[in-house]
User: Fold Small ribosomal subunit protein uS8 from Syntrophus aciditrophicus.
Amino acid sequence: MGMTDPIADMLTRIRNANRVHFKSVDVVYSGVNVNIAKVLKKTGYIGGYDVKKDEKGHDVLKVYLKYPDSKRTIINDIQRVSKPGRRVYVKGDEIPKVLNGYGVAIISTSKGVITDKEAREKSVGGEVLCKVW
Assistant:
């Protein structure tokens, strides 16, 4: 049986690994997950990512987490906004700010998966996938 929400699974794995200071975490591979990882890397929330094969030959997205020191984390929280049961769409002029601009909303738009700031600059709306701060 397939997974209902691979994005939520990815965010939960990152959140859990981040809380126990893992260096990396393996996530289910999907195109959207790779695009979210690109945005997280670009905004500085993760150290990087790779696409690898597991022992069965399936693609796995390996996300490398980063920490400023041994006690603190860069990602304070990461939350799914739009869910399979309740999709959340916003117009280009109604894009929410996360913690008054300290956090980032990741939005799936017609221009690709981008941050809330980029979506405001391009004046393009879309589905709010998650919030990170």
